[in-house]
Amino acid sequence: MSQHRPTASSAASMDESTIAAFRGHLRGELQQPGEEAYDTARKIWNGMFDRRPALIARCVSAADVIQAVNFARTQGLLVSVRGGGHSLPGHSVCDGGLMIDLSPMKGIRVDPVRQTVRAEPGVLLRELDRETQAFGLATTCGVVSDTGIAGLTLGGGQGWLMGKYGLTIDNLLTVDIVLADGRLLCASECENEDLFWAVRGGGGNFGIVTSFEYRLHRVGPTILGGMILYPREQAQEVLSFYRDYSMNTPDELSVVAALFTSPDGLPVVALVVCWSGSLAEGEACLGPLRQLGTPLADLVGEMPYCQLQSMLDAALPPGMARYSKMGYLPHLEEQLIKTVLDHTAEMSSPYSMVLFNAMKGAVTRVAADATAFPHRNPQWHFDIVAQWLDAAEQEQHSAWARGRQQLAGRR
Ligand SMILES: Cc1cc2nc3c(=O)[nH]c(=O)nc-3n(C[C@H](O)[C@H](O)[C@H](O)COP(=O)(O)OP(=O)(O)OC[C@H]3O[C@@H](n4cnc5c(N)ncnc54)[C@H](O)[C@@H]3O)c2cc1C
Questions:
Q1: Exposed, middle or buried by CB within 10 Å (0-12, 13-18, 19+), for 20?
Q2: 143 lines ligand 1 (CB under 6 A)
Q3: Residue 108: predicted pLDDT
Q4: Which of 20, 56, 173, 371 could form a Cys-Cys staple with 200, CB 3.0–4.6 A?
Q5: Which residues are CB-neighbours of 190 under 8 A, at least 6 positions away?
Q6: Mutate to test the pocket of ligand 1, among 87, 165, 316, 324 (most ligand atoms within 8 A of CB)
Q7: Residue 139 in contact with residue 159, Cβ under 8 Å?
Q8: Greatest alpha-carbon span in the chain
Q9: Using 50, 70 and 90 to split pLDDT, how confident is the model at 406?
Q10: Ligand 1 in reach of 385 Cβ (< 6 A)
C-alpha cells in the first residue's frame, strides 16, 4: 500500500469542509501542516527523508484505517502507511498525500495457555517482547527494539530466535487486513490463503494489516548472549571462523558478525551471539568461540532476553541519515572476506557498518514457495549500512555503501 501514485486530486487542493468531514469520521487525530504534533508524526527513523504529507491520519482502530483508505481512494490521494517508521527507503512517509499513521495502535493481548499473542500494527518490538516475556514467552523478532512489528513481519522478520523457531512470518497465525476497496478480511492458512501467502514476505503491497497473531515459544527469562570484540587486524581470521561456526552449530545459537568503529574510534569486528537453549549446553557450544584470537573484550554472559533484544539499539539510533545495500551470500570465500575488509577499510563515516547474519536451521526448513519470502537456503544475510549526521554528505556516504555492488547484488 506504500506510495501509490495520485490519480485525481491532491490534498492541497481539497476544500476545508471535505477535510473537516474526514476528521469527523475518525476516532484518532487528523493532522495538517502547522499543527502542533504534525512535525513529530511525520518523522521516521531514516533522517534522509524530510517529507511533508498534506494530511496525517493517526488511526486508533481498524475502523479509522477503513475510513482513511476509503477517503484516500475516493479523493485519489497518494498514500503512505506507517507502522514503526523504520523503512530504510522512507516508504512510510509521502509528500503531499495522506500518511496513514498506525503508531497509536498499540494493543497487545497474550494468551499464555494457547501460547499466542495478538498485536496491533503500531507495536514496537520491545513492546511485544515486554508483554510476552511477562509469561516467559517470545516469538522471533528483529534485533533493534524500536523497529515496528508491522513492517518487520510483512518483510519476513529475521532475528535471534530464527534458527530455532523460523522467521517472524513462520510464526504468524492470522492477520486482519484492510484492502484498497475498504473491506476488512481475515487471512490465515485456512481463510483467504493466497492473501496470507502474500503478506508473509510480500511487504505492504496487499492492504493495511490492522492485527497480527503470532505463535509464541518458551524463551528465557535469561539467555546467553552478548558480543566478543576483536581489533580489525584479526578480522580475516574472525570472519573465516565465523563462516564455519555460524552455520554448523545447533539451531539454538545465532551469531551476527559486525564490522564497525568503536565509540573511541577503534576499527573492530564483533561476533554477537544469542543462545536460547539450556545455559549449560550454551556454555559448551560457545567453547570454540572463546578460544578464538585475542579479543579486546568478551561481553558474553547470562542476561535477560529483552536486554539482548535492545543491545544494538545505540548503534542504530533514530534520526541519522542512512543508505543501505543488502543481499544474500551463499558462500563466504576467503577472497570475498578480503574484499569486504578492503571495502570496510574505506568506510567514509565512523557510524557506518557491515553486518552478516547467518540464516540456518528452522528458517531453511520451510519451502521457498511456501510464503512470499523465498530466501530459504542456508546463507548469510549481508547488510552494508552507511550512516551519517550531516545531510549535505549524502553523496559520499551512499557512494561508499554502493561501492561493492557485486556483493550487495549477490544471491
Ligand atoms: C535499525 C533497523 C534494524 C532492523 N533490524 C531488522 C532485523 O533485525 N530483522 C529484520 O527482519 N528486519 C530488520 N530491519 C528491517 C525492518 O524490518 C524493515 O525496515 C521494516 O519494514 C520496518 O518496519 P516498521 O513498521 O518499523 O517500518 P515502517 O516504515 O512503518 O513500514 C515499513 C513498510 O511497511 C509498510 N507497512 C507498515 N505497516 C503496515 C501495515 N500495518 N500494513 C501494511 N503495510 C505496512 C510501510 O508502508 C512501509 O512500506 C531493521 C530496520 C532498521 C531500520
A1: exposed
A2: yes
A3: 98
A4: 371
A5: none
A6: 87
A7: no
A8: 70
A9: low
A10: no
Amino acid at 177: I
- Ligand 1 within 6 A of CB of 150: yes
Q: Whose CA is nearest to atom 38 of ligand 1?
A: 83
Atom of ligand 1 nearest to the CA of 203: 34
Is this model's pTM higher than 0.85 or not?
Answer: yes
Per DSSP, helices labelled H in 30-165 are 38-41, 62-75, 125-133, 149-154, 162-165
Spatial neighbors of 113 by CB under 8 A, at least 6 apart, are none
- Residue 92 in contact with ligand 1 by CB distance below 6 A: yes
What top-level class would CATH report for the domain 223-408? alpha beta
Common-topology check for domains 108-218 and 223-408:
no
- Give the orientation angle of helix 16-25 with respect to helix 62-75, to 10 degrees: 160
Ligand 1 atom at minimal distance to the Cα of residue 151: 23
Residue corresponding to grid cell 560457545:
286
Does ligand 1 have an atom closer than 6 angstroms to the CB of 63? no
Instruction: Identify the CATH assignment for 11-101 out of 3.75.10.20, 3.30.43.10, 3.40.190.10, 3.30.1490.20.
Output: 3.30.43.10
Q: Which helix (H) or strand (E) is 58 found in, with range? A: strand 55-58
What are the residue boundaries of the structural domains of the chain, listed by start?
11-101, 108-218, 223-408
pLDDT digits (tens, 9 = 90+) for 60-91: 999 999 999 999 999 999 999 999 999 999 99
- The x, y and z cell numbers of residue 2, run together, are 506504500
Angle between helix 235-247 and helix 334-345 axes, rounded to 10 deg: 130
- 288 Cα: distance to centroid of ligand 1 (angstroms): 35
* Assigned C-alpha cell, 55: 494530511
Q: Which amino acid is at 139?
A: T
Q: How many distinct helices (H) and strands (E) make up the chain?
A: 14, 19
Supply the residue whose CA is at minimum distance from atom 7 of ligand 1: 142
The full length of the chain comes to 411
Helix (H/G/I), strand (E/B), else coil: 233: helix
